[in-house]
Amino acid sequence: MLKTLERYQKCSYGAVEVSRPSKELEFSCLQQSSYREYLKLKSKFEALQRTQRYLMQQPDFIHEIFDPEYSRNLLGEDLGPLNTKELEQLERQLETSLKQVRSTKTQFMLDQLSDLQNKEQVLVESNKALTRKLDEISVKNHLQLSWESGEQSMPYGHQQAQSQGFFQPLECNPTLQIGYNPAGSSQLSAPSNAQNVNGFIPGWML
Fold first, then answer.
1. In terms of residue numbers, what domain contains 22?
2. Looking at the domain assignment, is residue 24 inside a domain?
3. How far does CA 13 lie from the centroid of its chain?
4. Which pLDDT value is given to residue 125?
5. Sign of CA dihedral 82, 86, 92, 93
6. Three-state DSSP class for 94?
7. What is the mean pLDDT of each successive set of 10 residues along the chain, which is 206 residues long?
8. What's the number of domains the chain is made of?
């Protein structure tokens, strides 16, 4: 019986402990959602206040809203009942409205022109950078082609002669001896003369 009661208490209080954080989390989410909704309503209210203050500073606009006949007068309708003063006031209002429209249009066109000029400047700078890069690539390609064509057009004989210019053969003197011996030189010169005269080599030299 006691064990049964203990299990019941654990299950009951454990369920309470588990459900309590869930309720707290739900309440926190609801509180955050309410605060976000409050911020949205506050921003809308402030925007409406600004609009109201602006409209209160425009009596002609208020007059136009609450007087449909005045709206028709601005459109050039029902002008017969108006006197000279009312017509002059209407004319001034139309001129003021026309000036505002023209000023807004001019400012809009100036903004567009400035934007186009900025884009043009960016394109000009990009074009200059691309032109410089193309010039550099063209110069590199030209130098590379010149170097390759120069190597291919050089003849083999010219290269061989040029290489032989660095290595000149040394003249060898067969009569070179250490020391000077007149007899030996005369004996060596005699057979050579005989060879040149008779056209053959003596047997003792073979």
1. 7-57
2. yes
3. 65
4. 92
5. negative
6. helix
7. 66 51 67 81 81 63 56 70 82 84 89 90 92 91 82 55 49 49 48 48 56
8. 1
